[in-house]
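Risk register update: the risk of archive-format incompatibility is retired. Evidence:
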Amino acid sequence: MAYFHNVMTFAWELAVPRCQAYITNQSVWKDQNMARKPERTRDRILDEADKLVMAQGFAGTSIDDILKAAELTKGAFFHHFKGKGDLARALIERQALHDLAWFEEIAARAEADSEDPLEQMLLFLQEFEKHVSRSSDPLPGCMYATYVYESTQFEPSTMDFVADTLRRWTSIYVRKFQNILDRYQPALPVNARQLAEMIVSIIEGGLVLQRAYGDVRLTSRQSEQFRNYLKLLFDGRKRKADTKKTPRNAKRRISTNVAKVYPNTIIK
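Archived output:
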């Protein structure tokens, strides 16, 4: 009887710590879940990091803050990221890819509605204004601006990526404005790069002021003013002499879109 008691006691002493490790320690289950769903876990970390960084800055956001919000362990974090610097690069790369995909989507819609480069730009800006004014939360601001303001917190390669991303955005606008200038004569001397830098500055500055003022429509209003400026700049829509004539069916389609971007224009 004493022998049986000693065996049971020994078995219990071995079992209890192991049961506690698997039952009471939530990190075991979290790490197992992390291993089963690595991409979802990585996205959770990035999602929560995005919210926290935009709300309280990168310097004010710790790894522990992110893990607490995501309900994950440090093991899960370091499975996906080498450290906070690696997370910072992944965060801004994801933002850039998201923005590019969105840009291409609304640009494609504008191009489907019109073959005229000026009308495409005006339609594009209208879509942008609708998008930025839909949110009821004026706080998100701009991830690129956040990184620029806290540049000492990041590796030089990460800041190079931010600068290159903004240059790429500007280059996309340069090409679009050059298409307009190749077809139409502006009322005042201007080049494609000046127009591109202007709209990028308006958007970035608008997002900063939007957050500072708590005004969700501020960026949209400034974009609308730029759109009005383009209408005045190309008022009369004078074609350059070497531009081919527009086919009759294309003219009908263009006239329809003129009504969208110039609602007060009388179309003949």
